[in-house]
Amino acid sequence: MSGELTRRSAAELAELIASGQVSAVDVAQAHLDRIAAVDGEVRAFLHVDAETTLAQARAVDERRAAGERLGPLAGVPIAHKDVFTTADMPTTAGSRILQGWRPPYDATITARLRAAGLVIIGKTNMDEFAMGSSTENSAYGPTRNPWDTSRIPGGSSGGSSAAVAAYEAPLATGTDTGGSIRQPAAVTGIVGVKPTYGGSSRYGLIAFASSLDTPGPFARNVLDAALLHEAFSGHDPMDSTSIDRPVPPVVEAARRGDVAGLRVGVVRELGGEGYQPGVLARFNDSVELLESLGAKVVEVSCPHFGYALPAYYLIAPSECSSNLARFDAMRYGLRVGDDGTRSAEEVMALTRAEGFGPEVKRRIMLGTYALSSGYYDAYYGKAQQVRTLITRDFDAAFEQVDVLVSPTTPTTAFPIGDRVDDPMAMYLADLATIPANLAGNAAISVPCGLSDDGLPVGLQIMAPTLADDRVYRVGAAVERALEDRWGGPLLAKAPELAEADR
User: Fold this and answer.
1) Which of 65, 351, 375, 474 is the most exposed place for a label (fewest CB within 10 A)?
2) Chain centre distance of CA 115
């Protein structure tokens, strides 16, 4: 029964718990057993506390037994990216500079998960301060892709994507600054969503780039992602960028799942040279599928998308150089060289030198240079102008179509170590995802098949801001049609992990 429970969707688990067929404790224990069996190989988690997990589950069972009305995901386990503060667990952001830090408060997303009755089963590994596309930049070692443990699970939210793909949790949280939910989802064969910027709270999220960071859900199917999206989204007065508007009807859209009459735009600039042939083949199959389901497909040009990558790698490092200045060895976290003989400036320099990894240092230096006197207008200012042009490209495209589609990533999961010495090659993993971050649009990645190398490919669907329901509607239609074709979810085709279910 334990193995069967970990294969169930979040919606199915919630129904089983609500009907009394199983307890939240049973479900939590099944997932803890799965983590014990496979996480030595996958390394998705940085922190798991069985006692705390079971206490949360027990509390849900007690509340239900007392007749309390609970949320639709009550009792379902969730893996939580280690960039959200949690008062009862360490929060490290994948960095040595925060090793062992226990925050004094919960992030808004964390608090909403608890209020909804979700059971936070542990904190997941990530690229340090969310800077990376492979989860190799974690100070605590890389996470591995459950499809092939010699390969990356994407990044920066690779621990979360791997946990869901390895059946260690049915749901997970992530953050998407330049593709850090959608790209990991694509390469691990699951669903990942970047909500509209401002639709999910950043309060208590350790900041990387404040105008880009967007919390979002991971799940093994579109409906589960929608249920989680609805559970933690909505206006938060603690976040000045939070949108004071109702959450779009994402669950209703996921249940509807049809594309009849919708206008779908294929982005000319997101494909072709640099894209793996197998990725393009699966993408083209998906476009044909959308047409067969009743969508009207047209090609759309977004001419400034080609400048998105360089613009992003000026804007994001500039914001990170400012945000990471708070890690100064004075108030919390790591402190190096404080022997009473050194000045505060020396201690700060030693701490930052030892506490930050190479990629974080690279981006801080890039950002500091771009913001420096005499260069601000030429670099950061110009990048923001390009951002405006990209937003206008989206606006013009959405006058013609309801959603835009592209491959989520140019390639399937690459081998661990393959790009660590080539930052440019690493950055190209986010080629197709970055435009939506710069404009703030909603976007989803859904599995659309296997490439010639036997690894999963993702289809990216993008919608206007505050039209998040459209990505769920189209994503669910694609998912349903492809699962009928495959005879089940794509993830069922993944090789079983060697240590599983021992």
Assistant:
1) 65
2) 21
What token pair was written down for 329? 């060895």
Distance of CA 160 to the CA centre of its chain: 7
DSSP secondary structure, 124-178, as one string = E--SGGG--SSS-S-TT----BTTBTTB---SSSHHHHHHHHTTS-SEEEEE-SS
| Cα separation, 207 vs 140, whole angstroms | 19
Band the pLDDT of 2: cuts 50, 70, 90: low
Q: For 387-429, what is each residue's pLDDT tens digit?
A: 999 999 999 999 999 999 999 999 999 999 999 999 999 999 9
Q: Phi, psi at residue 497, to the nearest 5°?
A: -65, 145
Asked if residue 501 has pLDDT above 60, the reply is no
- Contact (Cβ atoms closer than 8 angstroms) between residue 176 and residue 142: no
What the block records as the tokens of 467 is 């039209």
CATH of domain 2-305+388-493: 3.90.1300.10
Catalytic-residue membership of 180: yes
DSSP, collapsed to helix, strand or coil, labels residue 205 as strand
Q: Which of 138, 180, 201, 318 is catalytic?
A: 180
* Burial 481-491, CB ≥16 within 10 A → b, else e: bbeeeeeebbb
CA 389 – CA 384 distance, rounded (Å): 9
Residue tagged active-site, from 95, 156, 160, 161: 156
Per the document, the length of the chain is 502
Catalytic residue among 81, 123, 133, 242: 81
Q: How many CB atoms lie within 10 A of CB 68?
A: 11
